[in-house]
Specification:
By secondary structure, the chain is an alpha/beta fold. It has two domains: 232 residues, Aspartate Aminotransferase, domain 2 (3-Layer(aba) Sandwich), CATH 3.40.640; 119 residues, Aspartate Aminotransferase, domain 1. 35% of the residues lie in helices and 15% in strands. The longest helix is centred in the C-terminal third of the chain and has 22 residues. The chain is globular.
Amino acid sequence: MTGIAKPEARPQRPYFSSGPCAKRPGWDLKNLADAALGRSHRAKIGKSKLKEAIDLTREILGVPEGYRIGIVPASDTGAVEMALWSLLGERGVDLLAWESFGSGWITDVVKQLKLEDVRKIEADYGKIPDLSSVDTDRDVVFTWNGTTSGVRVPNADWIASDRKGLTICDATSAAFAQELDFEKLDVVTFSWQKVMGGEAAHGMLILSPRAVERLESYTPPWPLPKIFRMTKGGKLIEGIFVGETINTPSMLAVEDYLDTLKWAKSLGGGKAMRDRADANAAVLTRWVEGADWIDFLAADPALRSNTSVCLKISDKAVAALPDDEQAKFAKSIAALLEEEDVALDIGAYRDAPSGFRIWTGSTIETSDVEALTPWLDWAFETVRQRNEV
């Protein structure tokens, strides 16, 4: 039996990794020529660039006045850990998890902070917990978009406006692509490399006035490392939120983030970024609906991510294989597409069910997603015949 013909058109940029993600269209290293290299980040030029990054983030994401925005060390992980170690323990906490990163926060709270009044509210990959069971008079920790499962919360309606607890939201694969309801969120975190194709090691921490009040009125019973400390003498260290970073940032990475923020602003800001991600995800949706061998990991369309789209092989013959053979089959498809230089780094996350994870966030061109789908069909058929499945 002969396979289907190899497609002729290729994605112009085969970068579909879910983190670090693709640089913006038109990106060039020359765009970073104005970086404040060899200068102190505490000098006027360094602080001004860091403050500009904070101000543009506020403008494009629509962060309300009164919310603090800080650039912090250690990527999104560092931002989440700062929030967990600094804010939790004042009351009971509900921990939500339906994929790898949410499960990681549960581990930190239960095994490292050793909090006792904890409720774990979990769901399998491809699903979401019962959000109506969450008690927002307790603190709540959750991911807005499950990067490794392709499942996102549909909205923030389940969060009470008059809540007594804090909501701590890991939004690292949602920011700039999904509308975040900041009035319902007390802590929002993300990383530059996940959502805007930025360089690694820098995280963003956004705090509501309620979160600041907690920081200034509550002292956790455990010691805090220096890079986690956001208060001094019971008052918020305001400098963190105007560009006076806790540790030394890479000014080259800052310039790279600024370049992408300015690109986003030139296209129309936050709404334009969300529209781009929606258009990209729509291409994959139309393709999946017309294919007979692939399906979304998330069965409910209302819960499907428009950035980290997770797919599983639904072909009956492949689905009947043992789990390890299914995983090997999917990895062979991903490897073949990488060999052809049409899709790089699209294998499922190591802890997730076997399949594919295709980034369709705002820095991806819709035309590249359109060019990718015939290659996915070709690779499946090619691997199927090679393995006589």
